[in-house]
Amino acid sequence: MFMLVTFFLLNFYVPEKNDNTTSIPICHTPVTANAMSALAGDPAFQMLHEVPLPFHYQGEGETVSFETPDGQKASGFFLKSPKKSNKWLLVYQEWWGLNDHIKQESAKLHKDLGDVNVLAVDMYDGKVGTTREEAGKLVQSASKERLAAIQKGAIGYAGKDAKIASIGWCFGGMLSLQSAILEQDKSVGCVMYYGSPEKDVEKLKTLKTDVLGIFGSQDQGISPEVVAQFEKDMKTAGKSVTIKMYDAVHGFANPSNPKHDPVATADAYKLSLDYLKKKFN
Q1: What number of CA atoms fall less than 13 Å from residue 23's CA on the CB side?
Q2: Where do the domains of the chain lie?
Q3: pLDDT (tens digit, 9 = 90+) per residue, 35-44?
Q4: Inter-residue contact 100 to 178 (CB < 8 Å)
Q5: Which of 124, 104, 4 is nearest to 56 (CA)?
Q6: Buried (b) or exposed (e) across 49-82, using 16+ Cβ within 10 A?
Q7: Which of 85, 68, 93 is nearest to 154 (CA)?
Q8: pLDDT at res. 252
Q9: Per DSSP, what are the bridge partners of residue 216?
Q10: Alpha-carbon distance 111 to 61, whole Å?
C-alpha cells in the first residue's frame, strides 16, 4: 500500500526549490515541496520505474541555445527542415531528461514529417538521469518557473511567424499540453502521451488547438478515471480532445523501457504522425 501511495503522489508533481507548499503537476496529484523531496529519494518509489535500457543515438541533429525570459539560456536538440519552413514541432522529454532515446524519436519524426523544424527541448539544462535516483533528483530540482521559462524561450526561438505543434511522453506529455497553452495563436497541434492533464478549466479555455491524448489502460498513475475527467474538462472548456486508450502500461511507447509494447507503440505513432501531418498542411 505504501508503494502504491508513493507512486500516486510522486509521479504527479515536481516541487519548488523553496520550503513553501507550492507544487506543479508532472504526472499525478499535489504534494508539498517537503513531502515531494522526501518521496523522490524513497527507494520504494524509485523501484516503480523501469530503468531505460542502454541506447546511443548516432545521427543528424545539433545542439542549439536560446534566451529565456528569466535572463538565462536554455538549449535543445535541433533538426532543421530540409527547406525553409515556419512549421515547428517541439518535443518534450520523459522524466529521465533529453537522452538519446528522445533524440532518436525526434529524428524519426523529423524524417517522417518532411519540411518541419524539430526541436527537442532540454528541460533539465543539460542534465540526464540514468538511474532512478538521478531522475528523482532531477524532478525535485525542476521549478515550475524555470520549466515555463524554458518553454517560452523555445517558442520564441521558433519565431514570431511559427506554426507550432508539440509532442511529449509522461513528464513531457504534461509539458506538451502546457506548451500548447503557452503557444497561444502559434499553436496548431498537441500530442500528449500519458501525461498529467491540466485540471484548470479556465486554462484549458485558452487553448487554440485540439489535443490528441494517448494513454494506457494499465497505467496506475494516469488512470482511465483521470483521462475521463480530462475529457469532461475539455468539453466544459469548449475544446476538442481525441483520446486513444491502449491496453498497456505507463511508458509503453519507449523502446528503452523493458515493458515496451511495440504493437501499441507502432499504432500510436501512426496516429500521432497522421494527426501532425494534417495540422501542418
Answers
A1: 23
A2: 2-280
A3: 223 434 556 4
A4: no
A5: 104
A6: bbbbeeeebeeebeeeebebeeeeebbbbbbbbe
A7: 68
A8: 92
A9: 246
A10: 12
Which segments in the chain show pLDDT lower than 70? 1-49
Q: Which residues contact 270 (CB under 8 A, 6 or more apart)?
A: none
**What counts of helices (H) and strands (E) characterise the chain?**
10, 10
Closest CA to 33 of 44, 47, 45, 19: 19
pLDDT digits (tens, 9 = 90+) for 87-125: 999 999 988 899 999 999 999 999 999 999 999 999 999
Instruction: Copy the grid coordinates of residue 218.
Output: 494499465
Output the pLDDT for position 47.
52
Give the three-class secondary structure for 31: coil
CA distance 203 to 198: 8
CATH number of 2-280: 3.40.50.1820
